Amino acid sequence: MNRKIITLTLLTALAMPMTVKAQQLRADNIDQIVSALTDDEKVHMLTGAGTGWADPDVKFPGIAGWTYPVPRLGIPSVYLADGPHGVNMNRYRDFDHFDYSCTTTPTSTAMAATFDVNAIGKMGNLIGYELKERGLDVILGPAINLQRTALGGRNQEYMSEDPFLSGKMAAAYIRAVQNHGVGTSVKHFAGNEAETLRKQSDTRATPRTLRELYLKAFEIAVKEGQPWTVMTSYNYINGEHSTERRDLVTDILRGEWGFKGIAITDWDGGYYPVKITSAGTDIIEPGSDQFREDLAKALADGSLDRNIVDAAIKRILEFTVKCPSFKQYKASNDIHRDEHLEWVREVGAEGMVLLKNDNQTLPVVPQKVALYGTTSYNFIAGNMGVGGTNGGAYHVTLVEGLRKAGFTIDMNLLRQHTRWQTEEDARLQSEASKDPIMSRILRPARAEELIPQEKIEVKEDPRMAQARQMNFNIGALMGNQAKPSTLSEQVANNDLAIITLGRTTGEGQDRNFKEFELRDSERKLIEVVSQAYHAAGKKVVVLLNVCAAIETQSWVGMVDAVLNVWEPGMAAGYSVADVLTGKVNPSGRMPQTWEVKFGDQPADLNFPSDYHPKSIMEFLGSAKMSDNPQKNEELVDYEEGVFMGYRYFTSFNKQVAYPFGYGLSYTTFAYENASLDPTADGFQVTLTVKNTGKVAGKEVVQLYSAAPAGGLEKPVRELKAFAKTKNLKPGESQTLTLKVTNYELASYNEKAVAWQAAKGNYSIQICKNANEVALTLPYKLKKTLSWKTTNSLALQAPLKEISLKKK
Ligand code: BGC
Questions:
Q1: Shortest CA distance to 323 belongs to which of 69, 616, 52, 607?
Q2: Residue closest by Cα to atom 12 of ligand 1
Q3: Which of 21, 167, 194, 410 fits a disulfide with 370 by CB distance 3.0 to 4.6 angstroms?
């Protein structure tokens, strides 16, 4: 500890009467407690008290952090664990024998793909329960930066390219977690759409673009979810670190949106503690002695406003008294593991998106199946980056899920793969050692595909020869060493081929565009397997075990069905089997546009995806670059403005592989009796959805609005409401009501410093997806409506945005 701070602590302690016990924190004496705290204690409370990452000798090993306690005033630490995909803490502790693993949910993208607030609410419910019963107070999630390009390193932690879908889903997650009396931290506020040099990169975007897209998700989540905490982001926004921007944290978040909780920094985010606290960011995580010294000095010499500090301390205490740790809640450590696995199974299946299903290839009855692709045997359930649950306890593999559902798995092929994987692991390890900086820390290199051959060269396992020499019982020693099968044998022995393509991603690193492309071995695998199975009149299904778009159009014609399963969480194999067999009819929809090739949308062109860090410090973002962000290389210019994702592709009429909102079903639906009625602050659409097919299923209804011409340039259509039916039996109908407020129709007018819903005729479009309008309804606003805002987030230098006019 800094010497000055120690002296200050001693003086304060001496000044206190020794006999009178200081009053203890209660919900109704917060102001008195603020006055009773010493400057040193306040400075400590403005920073985190530690993290459980490296030190095994803490209360909760592996958690992200906890707050500073002041026991003399009855202020406890409260404990923050990473999310958003479950509670992230160490599975084992050095000091006892228990298993503290928590349930791994589907990734945020997979949850958002359900287009169902109840489904994501179920996951929030599970997380809130486990958080509390593990003795913790806050989950560091949900994460709702937008999927601005397919290559964002944290796309799997984020929900969607669309702020409305992200915001609504996040609010449902937050409410469900907080129902348990524990908190959330919606993150990373804001503009953290890329990971490359994330602590130095400057997100340059107009106030309109920021407010309509990148802040909008947070606005909805904050207003409708009331999270206990918000985590600021690492990046700069228009030249200032987000966490040091008072206009962002105080004027917009608190002033305009009415946020009542505490704002915390991302871990080691921001460089200047006095600026951070002055901006209204309450806790600097995890904090450092240097930061505390700077804050103490500034508080003493008046350069840090005492009123700002006291307001922050008050908010921290208001937050603290809500936490289970303050209430001395006795956690049971019973996390309802089996029940939660079933919930994850259900929601994992619910988010899967059927992209192609020629001649009703799917569903299939359990049959003999050959699994191809290394990912089939190395299925990715989730757990990438801090958004994981430290591996969870286990995940149900694809093989296990299919076997349980009654499929017969080609075990010979499985054994070939197991052996191939061992060889590949050795190769990958030696590859990784050639790149010591990255060492594939976050994203292990992927194995090549094993391409099935017509002629098999049997290489004897060297251990076999050794064993033979030593005259051992080879069969018993080496297990079943059946001769590998040829491709024709595999075709003859199986009814169906399933190929899985996988992609991982993770924090701290964006994907490279090469990861969007298929590798040669993947393409070859699809070609070889499809030809052989089709020649025998058998079908080929591709599973996409991915977090964001990959290239599909060059190969999709070769296969019969494609199911995008995302990374569906701990029950992965069960969820996949449920959809393949039709136990669950797929009802997921794409929360992101899949483009034909990377580079098709302008946002791609301003994305730092080909960067390779030169040092580990640079990789971790700890290498401080120029203090003047304008001098840094990493300016990320959002030149596409509001034309990102489907807003670009629909407005500029550009072909996509799969549009936003797309997803097939095993049944068909009709929309009937649609009508639009005005409400006090907008309108509502009522319509009846009828299952016109032969099997039960759920339908997602998407409502988009198209603004009147004139005024600000707007995308062709924007999502304003969505709803999902229950599981409708064939012939069954359900009436849905979708509500929209006039405020939600508004655009941000920088000149007027206000949100404005322009007067005129709106076309309200009920769509199957962003590219397919099923029916339209007129809505008229007789006069322009305005909502004033603060004048915030101005650009420091002009930015050239694309425009429809210059098409
Ligand atoms: C991540 C956050 C995370 C925090 C604490 C940071 O590196 O960006 O999302 O919550 O660490 O683990």
A1: 69
A2: 64
A3: 410
- For residue range 672-722, list pLDDT tens digits in order: 999 999 999 999 999 999 999 999 999 999 999 999 988 899 999 999 999
Going by alpha carbons, the residue nearest to atom 8 of ligand 1 is: 266
CA nearest ligand 1 atom 4, residue: 267
CA 444 to mean position of chain CA atoms: 19
Task: Name the strands in the sheet holding 408-409, side by side, starting at the edge strand that comes first in the sequence.
Answer: 353-357, 561-564, 539-545, 496-502, 368-372, 408-409
Residues flanking ligand 1, CB < 6 Å: 64, 82, 140, 187, 266-267, 386, 507
**Distance (Å, rounded) from C-alpha 757 to C-alpha 760?**
9
Residue nearest to atom 11 of ligand 1 (CA): 267
Q: Check if the beta carbon of residue 187 is closer than 8 Å to that of residue 143.
A: yes
- Give the pLDDT confidence score for residue 393 in this predicted structure: 77
Mutation to probe ligand 1, out of 507, 509, 619, 620 (largest number of atoms < 8 A from CB): 507
| Rounded (10°) angle between helices 163-178 and 216-225 | 30
3-state SS class at 357: strand
Is residue 608 reached through a cis peptide bond, with omega within 30 degrees of 0 on the bond before it?
A: no
Return the structure tokens found at 199. 């602590």
Query: Ligand 1 test: best mutation among 267, 441, 442, 619, most atoms within 8 Å of CB?
Result: 267
Record the pTM.
0.94
Given a contact cutoff of 8 angstroms between Cβ atoms, the answer to whether 67 and 262 are in contact is no
Cα-to-centroid distance, 320 and ligand 1 (Å): 21
